[in-house]
Amino acid sequence: MSKPESDSKSAAAAGEQAAVRIDDVAVRFRTRKRDVTALQEVSLDVAMGEFVAIVGPSGCGKSTLLKMVAGLLKPTTGTVKLRGETVDGPRHDIGYVFQRAALLEWRSARRNILLQAEMRKMPGDRAKARTAELIEMTGLTGFEDALPHELSGGMQQRVALCRALLHEPPVLLMDEPFGALDALTREQLNVEMNRIWRETGTTVLLVTHSVAEAVYLANRVVVMSDRPGTIREIIDVDLPAEREYTPTLAKPEFASVAARIRELLGAGGAAD
Ligand SMILES: Nc1ncnc2c1ncn2[C@@H]1O[C@H](COP(=O)(O)OP(=O)(O)O)[C@@H](O)[C@H]1O
Ligand SMILES: [Mg+2]
C-alpha cells in the first residue's frame, strides 16, 4: 500500500530511508558534434511504495533520469541512491518496462517472463510459482503458451510487466509503457497497473506523455521543464490509493491537478 503524501514527507524528514533519492543531479552528454545538458539541478525523494509519475516535453531528460536510477548511466554531478545505497553501476533490484515490449518472438509468454529468472539464476521453483502468480495478476491466464505474435499489444505489455516484476523488485521503472497502445487498452492497463501497484507494494517511477495517466496512477506528479530538464513543480495527487477509473477522472481533485500540469506544460505541450 502506498503511504499518503503527508506520511511520505514526514518519513523523509525523519530520515527514513527513501526508495530513491536523487540529489542535485546534472547529466551532460559530450559528443564530438554536440554538448547537451540533459538534466540540471534535479533533486527528488521517492518514498517506499510511492507511485511517482514524470511528465515533460520530449527531450527534457525523462528517459535519462530513469536510466540513471537504474545505474545504466552515471550523473555528471550529484548522486543517486536506491534504498540508501549509492548507485554506481547497473542495478539488479529494479524492474524496467519500456514502450516496446521487446519479447523474444520464439518464446511463449511464460518463457519470456521466465527469461528474467534465467538471467538472474533464480531458483526454478520460485520463478515458476512467481510466474504463475503474475500471469494471474495481469490477466494473462489462458495465454501462457502463446507466442508474442499471437498476442495483442496490450497483452505483450502485460508480459513485459510480468518479466519486470518476476524478481520482486522494490523499484519499478516504466518509460512510456502504454504509449503505443490504443486508448481503450491503455485505460484498461492503467486500471490494472493501479491494482498491481497496490498488490505488490512496489515503488514506481513512471514516465508518461499522458496527463490523465499520470494523475490517475500517481501519488505525485513531477513536471519537468524543457531541456535542460529541471523539475518545475511536484504536484501532490490527493486521491485514495484505490482508484476506480471513471469516478476518479470525474473528481474535482483530478481535474484541478490535471489543469495545473497542463498549465505548467504550456498550451500544446506534451499533454495528450
Ligand atoms: N547517450 C546520449 N548521448 C548524447 N545525447 C543523449 C544521449 N541520451 C540522451 N541524449 C540527449 O539528452 C536529451 C534528453 O534525452 P532523453 O532523456 O531521451 O529525453 P526524453 O526521454 O525526456 O524525451 C536529448 O536531447 C537527447 O538527445
Ligand atoms: Mg524518453
Automatic annotation (TrEMBL):
This is ABC transporter ATP-binding protein. SUPFAM superfamilies: P-loop containing nucleoside triphosphate hydrolases. PANTHER family: ALIPHATIC SULFONATES IMPORT ATP-BINDING PROTEIN SSUB (PTHR42788:SF13), TAURINE IMPORT ATP-BINDING PROTEIN-RELATED (PTHR42788). PROSITE patterns: ABC_TRANSPORTER_1, ABC_TRANSPORTER_2. It comes from Actinomadura vinacea. One of its GO terms (molecular function) is ATP binding. The keyword Transport applies. CDD domains: ABC_NrtD_SsuB_transporters. Gene3D superfamilies: P-loop containing nucleotide triphosphate hydrolases. Keywords: ATP-binding, Nucleotide-binding, Transport. Pfam families: ABC_tran. Residues 20-253 form the ABC transporter domain.
